[in-house]
Write a structure and sequence with these properties.
This protein is of the alpha+beta class. It has nine helices and seven strands. It has helices at about 5-10, 15-20, 30-45, 55-65, 85-90, 140-145, 155-160, 215-220, 225-240, and strands at about 110-115, 115-120, 125-130, 150, 170-175, 205-210, 250-255. The strands form two sheets. The chain has a four-stranded mixed beta sheet, with no helix packed on it. Strands 6-5-7 form a three-stranded antiparallel beta sheet.
Amino acid sequence: MTADHLLTQNLQDRSVRSGLSLAGRKSTKDAASQAVEWWEFDWEDAEPPQRSQEFAIANYVRTSLSVFPVLDNHFIYDQRGFNAFVKGEASTFLSGNDPRLLLNTVVTNNISYDHTGVTIINKDGSCVQADYAICTFSLSVLQSDTVAFEPELPDWKRLGIETFSMGTYTKIFLQFPSDQVFWDTSYQFFLDSLDGEGFLARSGIIFVKVVQSQSYVVGAQDDETIKQEVLAVLRDVFGAENVLPELKSRAVGVR
């Protein structure tokens, strides 16, 4: 019984772990099965199957991948930075030093609203009033009650906020001397190599990923500790004699 069937027939939801087990895919069988499951699920969704609901996954596929054409799953490495498209969009309606753009302005107090408009009180005591406001706070901010809404958000919206979660995903980039690369650069996804044609050829850059609990561990470590732990794994896989003791540059975690 597929997730689509459960969804369309309004039947009880179940975890992805339950669905995988019913399909005969029990990750506890052996290490290879666990690695495949992590690659196919945790790596993609930043959550383990037991914390993911089949309805949510089915809706995600139905409302995104099945609606919008996916030609390629590109990795963005634009040297201008990820915010290039944000600045490009903003330039269509904001001028240089536009006073309507308030940077370094923290909203930590009260947001009041009714049918006549919205009033926002900032940390520095300043006030913004408008006919409408679009709330783009992250889920963690909304769940922490850092910002107070007056009146309180409706029950249906609070239910959605409190029953949702965001995965934690960390990429760790490492750069080795380009003439001493020890992995096969013709395979992009074996180690997520950026040293290949169409990416950053001869850069000596690879990156690895950790999610959820491992991300929290990495987030509390300094770069040197992260580097040594990743190098230990690489030496175990490729042989200590093939992996240089030092990187060309430090390991950098992007969260």
